[in-house]
């Protein structure tokens, strides 16, 4: 049965983060923080490697605002890549570690609780009277424990919330099974739990290594001992893969921010080159073409004007030579 987070843990999270209680879930859910969309990578003095989150700060912005680069460098020394301040990031890591410990402790009890519930659901109706009495006592104790949590009589009750129906712990203790049944439950429950856990562990082994079904008992016990190490290594690998994915996502965001700036710089460079080398040279080329056409027209006009006089002074031999070379022109 799923249980709500412990009130003391929520109060501790709120005190560590120094924010109002209604804002604590939002802060815990977002790792980017209020400055998650500001900042850029700047060279730092030293080897701290601090950097601001990606942003759309261009070289023109830094030139137009001389104090902006100094401000960003000062912020980079007090912020991490996610946008949180370094002090708040350390506090958040500490709270996350404590929360992880609380989750592990809760998960242990949750596994035992679900295991006992499954044992009650799978109980055989034709069991021996002793086993039936044991299961009835177990079910009654479980229900009383759940009722104690529901009415607000848990191990750490909240003083602000009233106790449901005005019940006390003594009222629930009166509903407990007889002492001899409780003694039988305490005696048999550890052995039964060990047997149920062994059965679940073998089922997990069969799921993870199906080829182990045909092995002997000794070999399966050895494989079961190795399974915990294999699962821990697999969990570590998945955790490292998540960290690597988060780093790659941050790198992708930085590259996206730099890509737009690079495209803008390339566009400006192309416009400048086109202005200087294409449009500037075109005027000179047009002027040269105009001079060439003007000279050619002058030559053609001169040839057309002086051509008859020159041909009139040609001798017969010259005319024969021109006629043989240019029969179309004479």
TrEMBL record:
<dbReference type="GO" id="GO:0007098">
    <property type="term" value="P:centrosome cycle"/>
</dbReference>
<protein>
    <submittedName>
        <fullName>HAUS augmin-like complex subunit 4 isoform X3</fullName>
    </submittedName>
</protein>
<dbReference type="Pfam" id="PF14735">
    <property type="entry name" value="HAUS4"/>
</dbReference>
<dbReference type="InterPro" id="IPR026214">
    <property type="entry name" value="HAUS4_met"/>
</dbReference>
<dbReference type="GO" id="GO:0051225">
    <property type="term" value="P:spindle assembly"/>
</dbReference>
<dbReference type="GO" id="GO:0051011">
    <property type="term" value="F:microtubule minus-end binding"/>
</dbReference>
<dbReference type="InterPro" id="IPR029327">
    <property type="entry name" value="HAUS4"/>
</dbReference>
<dbReference type="GO" id="GO:0070652">
    <property type="term" value="C:HAUS complex"/>
</dbReference>
